[in-house]
Specification:
alpha/beta, Aconitase, domain 3, 2 domains, 6-stranded mixed beta sheet
């Protein structure tokens, strides 16, 4: 279902879009520009998809920072790895059998929402990287062990509509999502709208770095969204995280995200939507932002958003997005004011009642000292009492008292940086 109210032409394109700003300003003039990025994206989804009977009541939740009403969210995509994605498609295949047994047309059973299944959870490393042809050997073992599963998954490519399958051997699902699959802004049936998604992995927020709201969910909720049902939620805690200063030589994205992880865990941002802004966030490359967003479950948060800015546009060009798509992203983000909160923090009145504001200063000339290749740091939290908000300041200081090993998480972190993994072999899918 798509509404018609607040539909308007998108300047510089042949498309239309739904103006969340017009809907919000009609209810509360002067409010839209004060909303956090997360609220702006959710508001657009409501204006475009929600039942008009509940639209105003749902939008008032954002305006007044209330949490007494569930509102519907219709993600634009579902992204699955092969374990849970296969399970969901097996359910649909079983439903087809049941429909056929009743004399119905089984071909009518298809995902309503575009679903992308990425085969990346089946590989077991039996041959180490120092062996000749290790990759080919491991892939051959993967195919042999999963022959029946892969046969079914390949069948779904042609049996179902709205299903894309990325075969094994192409990389990690989140990196593929970041580099190839997310358009950031969709153009469908003449309408431009933000990319949003649910994924069957806790690290689905990896793509939040592009300004895409992406939430990790379980298989049942993903399957529900796949069938076109709304995911209902209430206004979450929206936590502004300001990054200031410049990263000094020798400090990697891994160092930064480990410092942030410890700090945000202590700050108890459980289930929050984080929004990173400030001069430090603006200076980060998209790969470094993705490294931070990828650690959302380690923070305890639900999402870790960055705004759409020039670094987003540069990354889309770098990864080969079509020039028309890049232009659409730039035009749409400007029209919907998706990049205007980069340099100023949201005040307490612009966030939900229990939101607090984090000021993070981790790059102010301090260098992380190392001991036997293990980065070490200490974090100092200052929580001055203020009537309107809790203020937390994170200071990086050299210390050798709390070593943090890199090995267990380095693979996940470093895949976000194009400096480490680019160029790679071409994708095996189109």
């Amino acid at each position: 279902m798509m509404n018609n109210q607040y539909k308007t032409a998108l300047a510089g394109t042949t498309l239309s879009y739904f103006s969340a700003e017009a809907a919000i300003e009609k209810l509360a003039p002067g409010t839209y520009q004060t909303l956090p990025y997360t609220c702006k994206v959710f508001a657009e989804n409501l204006v475009r998809r929600a039942d008009p009977k509940i639209l105003d009541a749902a939008l008032w939740q954002f305006i007044e920072r209330k949490r007494d009403l569930d509102f519907p969210w219709y993600p634009a995509r579902v992204v699955c790895h092969d374990i849970l994605g296969q399970t969901a498609l097996v359910d649909l295949a079983g439903l087809r059998d049941a429909i056929a047994a009743k004399g119905g047309d089984p071909a009518q059973v298809n995902p309503v929402v575009p679903t992308q299944l990425i085969v990346d959870h089946s590989l077991a490393v039996e041959h180490a990287g120092f062996e000749p042809d290790a990759f080919e050997k491991n892939r051959a073992i993967e195919d042999r062990r999963n022959d029946d599963r892969f046969h079914f998954i390949n069948w779904t490519k042609t049996a179902f509509e709205n299903v894309d399958v990325i075969p094994p051997g192409n990389g990690i699902m989140h990196q593929i999502n970041l580099e190839r699959m997310s358009p950031v802004i969709h153009a469908q049936d003449g309408i431009a709208f933000p990319d949003t998604l649910v994924g069957t992995d806790s690290h689905t927020p990896h793509v939040d770095a592009l300004g895409v709201i992406a939430i990790g969910v379980g298989g049942l909720e993903a399957e529900s969204v796949m069938l076109g049902r709304a995911s209902y939620l209430r206004l979450p805690d929206i936590v502004g995280v300001e990054l200031t200063g410049e990263r000094q030589p020798g400090i990697t994205a891994t160092d930064i995200v480990l410092a942030l992880t410890e700090f945000l865990r202590e700050a108890r941002v459980v289930s929050s939507y984080l929004e990173f802004f400030g001069t430090g966030a603006a200076a980060l490359t998209l790969g470094d932002r993705a490294t931070i967003s990828n650690m959302t479950p380690e923070f305890g948060a639900t999402a870790a958003m960055f705004y759409i800015d020039d670094k987003t546009i540069d990354y889309l060009k770098l990864t080969g997005r079509d020039p028309e798509q890049v232009h659409l992203v730039e035009t749409y983000a400007k029209q919907q004011a998706y990049g205007q909160m980069r340099s100023r923090p949201p005040s307490m009145s612009e966030c939900s009642p229990s939101t607090y504001h984090l000021l993070v200063a981790i790059w102010q000339g301090h260098r992380i000292r190392t001991d036997e290749s293990r980065p070490t740091h200490s974090l100092k939290l200052e929580l001055p009492a203020t009537p309107s908000m809790r203020l937390a300041r994170c200071l990086m200081a050299p210390s050798l008292s709390r070593p943090l090993p890199l090995a267990p998480i380095r693979q996940t972190l470093e895949t976000s940086s194009l400096r480490d993994c680019w160029p790679r072999k071409p994708m095996l899918w189109v």
